[in-house]
Amino acid sequence: MDVKRAAIKERAIRELLRRNKDKHDSLLSYIKHMYKNEVKRDYNDWWVYEEICDTLEKVANWEIKRLIINMPPRLWKTDHVTKWFSTWLMWKRPNTKFIVTGYSTELMERFSWEARLWYESKTYKTIFPRRSKIRDDQNMKKWWTNEEWGSYYAVGSWGTITWVWADIILVDDPLNPKDEASDVVRSWVNNWYHNVLESRLDDKKNGAIVIIMQRLHADDLCGHLMDLENEWVWEKWDKLILPAIAEEDEKHRVYGESINEDRLPLEFLDNVKGKDKVIFSCQYQQNPISKESQEFHEEWFQYEENMPSWWRVFTTVDPAFTKNKGSDDSAIVTGAFLWEKMYILEYTAGKFDVWELVDKMIYHIQKWNPEKIGIESFQAQVTINFSLKTELNRRWMHCQVEEIRQSGDKESKIRRLLPLFRNGLIFHRRDMDKLEKQLKEFPRWKHDDVIDATQMLYDLYTLQPNTVQNYSVPQIKYDSNGRPIFN
Fold this sequence. Notes:
This protein is of the alpha/beta class. Helices cover 38% and strands 18% of the residues.
């Protein structure tokens, strides 16, 4: 191409960019124009989309490095992040590398294919005449690269990512709603994020990660990361939380108003709430723990600071060996009983090795002098029983030690406490914050060690023989002279 033709082409490109400046100057204007010309429909100019686009632009400008967006399903959150944001940024910075992931590999590949169609569309070429073309030798459904080495790589959660790096990682619903109740699956996803996905950032400090999802559980990926937020120095997350129904007056709506009356009318949301309060609280209100989904209510809590000395006392232990972050604590609970009433005297919870746990049990025995201490025993935990007996003998102390072997799932067992709390039969002190927290957050929270040991305590007591002696009064008979007859 000679100099004159090159100059004419350059002027034409500059003129196209000038004419289309209002169509790509912002992410929102780009989406509106592309949607109208490619989908042939008007884009819904809605305040939620403005909030999302403004926040994503801060990611594009490296003002935000870690972003969580929580919003209800079926509101185009995937399109905004995986297709529209990624392709718009690949025009602004053609060498940007993306990794896009979610719970389904098939869905992620479909999103990649749709983003590529958007990138290669006639409308995109018109408003971005300088766009970098897709390389012929790297143009697959799941992974495509442009001539400036910007790329889009799609992978499902748990998938293998080898020799792929990213400037921005987009995480879209990493957990399938059908798996939200599985501790194993949730832990696997959370560990995959830390051990695999996070390491794919080319610049660990300045690279960006965007997670957009509906909440499913208190220990889903967002809950897990929020829980760790205070433990990491620089891993702080910006959050855009959009509940389906406003829980207070907001900038764009008032208390009780739907996020979108057309797509999520209040009548529909009330119907969801009536069918399943947990799903409504999690997936629609983005609050895995709420008053609506609670099983144990604070109105049931009974407080008592002083306990009569003649109650019967027992202790139970729920051991946990691992000291890993996020794992359950070992829990020791001591309680006193009078008939069906239980008073929780003290609990100890934390991450202890075997001998640390034995020391904590000795403390409870010395302080409260229980009739019996019950230890949940299975697999390696039977060593706790042996270790405690050994230490008691060494210290010339006596306390009956009993193994507790439980069957059935933990949630069903803990729910046996519901009628006791509801009928005001369990008492505790006001400073027992961890106990109350686990009760109010059950079963949506990941820790339940204290309340699990509490239900074991009540079960242990109910299996004990009654110490109250019932004496029968003999019927006395008399002879004809009025003298008692003894047999």
